[in-house]
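Hi there,

I know you've been waiting on this one. I reran it after we fixed the sequence typo, so this is the corrected version. Both the input and the resulting structure follow.
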Amino acid sequence: MQIKEVIALLEQWAPRSYAEDFDNTGLLVGDSAKTVSGILVSLDCLEAIVDEAVDKGCNLIVSFHPIMFKGLKKLTGADYVQRAVLKAIKNDIAIYAIHTALDNNWEGVNHQILETLGAQKSSVLIPKAGTLKKLITYAPQQESKALLDALFSAGAGAIGQYSECAFTSEGEGSFKPGADANPALGSKGQRHYEKETRIEVLVPQHCESRVVSALIKTHSYEEVAYDLIPISNTNKQLGMGMIGSFENPLSEAEFLALLKSRMHCGGIRHSKLLGKPINRIAVLGGSGAFGISAAKAAGVDAYVSADFKYHDFFSAEEQLLLVDIGHYESEQYTKNLIVQYLSKKITNFAVLLSEINTNPIFYL
């Protein structure tokens, strides 16, 4: 198996097109045509992780965080980023970063936090906009079912927990084939009328080229009429953060103790205790101060994230409990999630979980 085949599997699960604009995901170091000897999965990619990959015979590191976040203008080994990249290049080790592509996944980072806490997920906290289009096309009525099947197989027609969603209506189309045309129906130079079905389906951004290809391949017409229209609807199963709930409400003290225990926190920072039970919560792995207003609007009892600044805690305004559990702590189980996924997809070589704790923060 080549590195590019592993990348294809990862991007079926967490398409790069859904990563945030500021992010640096994808293959950061290495040749995608190389054959994979083993995969090491880590939260960060530091020198020690590259050494671990060498020791374990892995030539591909799948890291949650990108080691190169800003542009590199030189490679002299002057800092920890350059040293890790240089060591990877020297040892012919590729580095792939998944980051916010997995943050936005319905079964990604925030799903894992809720599962670890024993809460049931219900919805995305900040649904991602601009990731859906509507495909409208027309086909002879006798072909409409086969065409719908092809579009569904290519990924069209999903709305939340529902699949194979479409709207169809019957009508009549007309066309006149030109002298150089090769019409499937009708005759050159003569206007033809055909009973047609109008088909409308939603198309997720990452499936767009696949869906259009399936449309062209399956349709009998030489020239296929279709519209692919951007829509403002948000994708409710894609986006930052997630809302969940407990089967039985917890006291604030019980909730904080649960967080500290399950997330292995060296310390927890939180806003003023309100003396209210904790039932519905919102979680967002990593730096999540930007999600506070969305958590308040959702009416959750607590919002769990990381990297809150001093003034962020004032934003609670006695409406909810804000909890900062630490950046590393909120994302630490992500590497387990990646290993579980890849291990199901790949069985002919090792997918290993890094044994190195890369948390740069220590607690007294």
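Quick highlight: The chain has a mean pLDDT of 96.

Best,
R. S.
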